[in-house]
Amino acid sequence: MKRWLPLVLFLVLVGFFAKGLFLNPREVPSPFIGRTAPAFTLPLVGDAGASFSPADMKGKIWMLNIWAPWCVSCRQEHGFLMQLAQSGRIPIVGLNWKDADREAQALLARTGSPYVAVPDDLDGRVGIDYGVTGTPETYIIDREGIVRLKHVGPIGPDVWQTKFEPKLKELGA
């Protein structure tokens, strides 16, 4: 039996590695699903005298889109977010993440803003609290402030129909 132990261990490791090849790297499990969204209060882009907190959205199903002006994928999804905002389907809050060059206000003025509020996470601490690994990342948060969905990567019509719409229907939105 001892003679076969290295072979058995090797085969088990090969099995784990093989399974890993078929995992989707965009499907990063979030420890926040089913838990209260991390609380924060941040100033708004373009209006440092005003602020946003998730508590402002209590009683609403809403979307938190973490983006950055320097993010190419964020610009890719921008057109779809504009269509979504115009439809009135769900309010979108756009967390401006690590915008060291302070480009967000000018970019949104030029391209339009799909957001009901744009909190400014200059140092990235709120993003860290949400477990952000890169931009864009998008969360659906329910009426009680519970995170119900996390999506890593840009949103387009296909992702919206297959991932977001079913969750919104489940939540009664």
Describe this structure in words.
The protein has one domain: Glutaredoxin (3-Layer(aba) Sandwich), CATH 3.40.30.10. With 173 residues, the protein is of the alpha/beta class. The chain contains five helices and seven strands, in the order αβββαβαβαββα. The strands form two sheets. It has a five-stranded mixed sheet. It starts with a helix and ends with a helix.
Annotation field: number of helices: 5
Order of helices and strands: HEEEHEHEHEEH
Strand elements, count: 7
Overall CATH class: Alpha Beta
General form: elongated
Question: Main beta sheet: strand number and arrangement?
Answer: 5 strands, mixed
Cα-to-Cα separation, first versus last residue: 59 Å
Number of domains: 1
Named at the architecture level, the CATH assignment is 3-Layer(aba) Sandwich
What percentage of the residues does DSSP assign to strands (E)?
A: 15-25%
Compute the gyration radius: what is it? 19 Å
Structural class: alpha/beta
CATH-defined topology: Glutaredoxin
Biggest sheet, spatial arrangement of strands: 5-4-3-6-7
Low-confidence stretches: none
Helical content class: 25-40%
CATH superfamily: Glutaredoxin
Report the average pLDDT across residues.
89
Could you provide a short overview of the structure?
The protein has helices at residues 5-21, 72-87, 104-111, 125-129, 157-170; strands at 42-44, 47-52, 62-67, 92-97, 120-121, 137-141, 147-152. It is of the alpha/beta class.
